[in-house]
Specification:
Layout (H helix, E strand, L loop, with lengths): L6 H12 L5 H20 L10 H12 L4 H20 L27 H14 L4 H12 L3 H6 L5 E2 L4 E4 L17 E4 L2 H14 L14 E2 L2 E2 L2 H11 L2 H4 L29 H14 L4 H8 L3 H8 L4 H11 L5
Antiparallel strand pairs: 1-2, 2-3, 4-5
C-alpha cells in the first residue's frame, strides 16, 4: 500500500534527500519552484500527491506559462519533472507520469523581453498622474530604478529604508519567508535617487498599510493582510506594462474592450506586458547604456559580470562600439 503524502510533505522529503548532493543555489531553486507547486495543489484541492495525474501537471504548466517567460518555464518544468521522477521511484505517483510531461526546450537560453527608457518614463508619468504613491507605483519605480530582484524588493522592512541617507538595506532571512537569491552574498545596501525616496516617503505617509507581518516584522511594502506577496507585485508589473494601461493604445491591433489581457489576472497575456524579471533586465541595460561600468552595475544588482553579459546586456554591437569610442576619447 503506497504511503499517502501531501504535496508539501512529498516536496520536503525530496529536498531533504537532495540536500547532501546539490549546491545551495540548486536546492534553493528547487525549493522555490516546489513551494509554488504545493501551493498550487492546495489551491486546486489536491490533498495527496498519490491523486496527481497528467492533467494536473498540464494544468500547472498552463498556469505557469502566463506568469513567466519561456526560459523560466522550461527551467521550472525541468525541476518539476525531476521531482515527479523521484515520486515515481517512491511509488507515490503512477509510473510514466514524468515521461508524459511537456518540457519544451526554448530556442534561445536568454530572453530579450524588455522595455526601453522612453517606455519606462511613459509608465512613470502615467503613475505620477493617475496612481501616485500607490503600491503599484512604488513597485514599478523601485524595480526599474534599482534593478533588484522581485524577492529582494519584497524582503525590505520599514526600518531598513533610510530616507535621510537615501538607501535601503537588503538582508537574507529565509526563516521568516524573505530569502535572497544568493543567500548572505546578496545582502547589501542599495542607493536610491532623491525622486525615488520622495515617492517612498509619500507612499509610507499616505498609502502604506501600517501592519505587522506574521513573523513580527514591519514590511516596507504592504497590503491590508501584511507583507506584499510576490504574485501581487508580479501582477502589478504585468498590468502596468500593458500599453493600453499607460497610454490607452494597443500596438497589436486588438480591440481593447474585448482583449482578454485587460483582465487583471490575465495581463501577462498581452504581448507587450513584461514580468518583473524582464524589468530587471531592462534596468540593467539602461544603466549600461548610460556608460556605467559593468562591475558597478553588477554589484548594484547582485550578479556576476559573466551573467550580466550573457543574460542582461541587451545593447547592440553598434551601441557598445559607440560607447567604447566615447570612453577612449575618439569622438573628436
Amino acid at each position: 500500500m503506497p504511503r499517502k503524502l501531501t504535496p508539501k510533505q512529498a516536496a520536503e522529503r525530496y529536498l531533504k534527500e537532495r540536500e547532501p548532493n546539490v549546491s545551495k543555489s540548486t536546492l534553493y531553486n528547487h525549493r522555490s519552484l516546489l513551494r509554488q507547486w504545493w501551493q498550487w495543489c492546495d489551491d486546486h484541492g489536491i490533498e495527496y500527491v498519490n491523486d496527481i495525474d497528467g492533467f494536473d501537471v498540464a494544468d500547472f504548466r498552463l498556469d505557469r506559462q502566463v506568469e513567466v517567460g519561456e526560459v523560466t518555464l522550461y527551467n521550472q518544468m525541468t525541476v518539476l519533472r525531476t521531482f515527479v521522477r523521484w515520486m515515481q521511484s517512491r511509488n507515490l505517483v503512477q509510473n510514466g507520469l514524468a515521461d508524459g510531461m511537456v518540457v519544451s526546450q526554448p530556442e534561445d537560453d536568454s530572453r530579450n523581453g524588455m522595455i526601453d527608457a522612453e517606455t519606462a518614463d511613459s509608465i512613470l508619468n502615467y503613475l505620477d498622474k493617475y496612481e501616485y504613491g500607490t503600491l503599484r507605483h512604488v513597485a514599478f519605480a523601485m524595480l526599474w530604478h534599482t534593478g533588484m530582484r522581485l524577492g529582494a524588493l519584497r524582503s525590505i522592512d520599514l526600518d531598513e529604508y533610510h530616507p535621510e541617507d537615501h538607501y535601503v538595506e537588503l538582508h537574507h532571512r529565509p526563516e521568516s519567508d524573505t530569502p535572497l537569491k544568493n543567500g548572505k552574498d546578496s545582502e547589501r545596501e542599495v542607493n536610491l535617487a532623491i525622486w525615488c525616496c520622495d515617492l517612498l516617503d509619500d507612499y509610507i505617509n499616505r498609502k502604506r498599510y501600517d501592519v505587522t507581518g506574521k513573523h513580527g516584522r514591519q514590511p516596507l511594502l504592504t497590503t491590508e493582510h501584511g507583507r506584499v506577496s510576490k504574485s501581487n507585485i508580479r501582477e502589478h508589473i504585468n498590468q502596468i506594462t500593458r500599453p493600453c494601461t499607460y497610454k490607452n493604445e494597443c500596438p497589436h491591433d486588438r480591440e481593447i474592450t474585448e482583449c482578454e489581457a485587460t483582465s487583471r489576472l490575465l495581463a501577462a497575456r498581452c504581448p507587450s506586458s513584461i514580468p518583473p524579471h524582464d524589468l530587471r533586465r531592462s534596468s540593467v541595460t539602461y544603466l549600461l547604456d548610460n556608460d556605467h561600468r559593468k562591475e558597478l552595475v553588477a554589484d548594484r544588482v547582485d550578479m556576476s559580470v559573466k551573467t550580466l553579459d550573457k543574460h542582461y546586456d541587451q545593447r547592440s554591437e553598434a551601441q557598445k562600439r559607440e560607447q567604447r569610442r566615447a570612453e577612449f576619447g575618439m569622438n573628436g
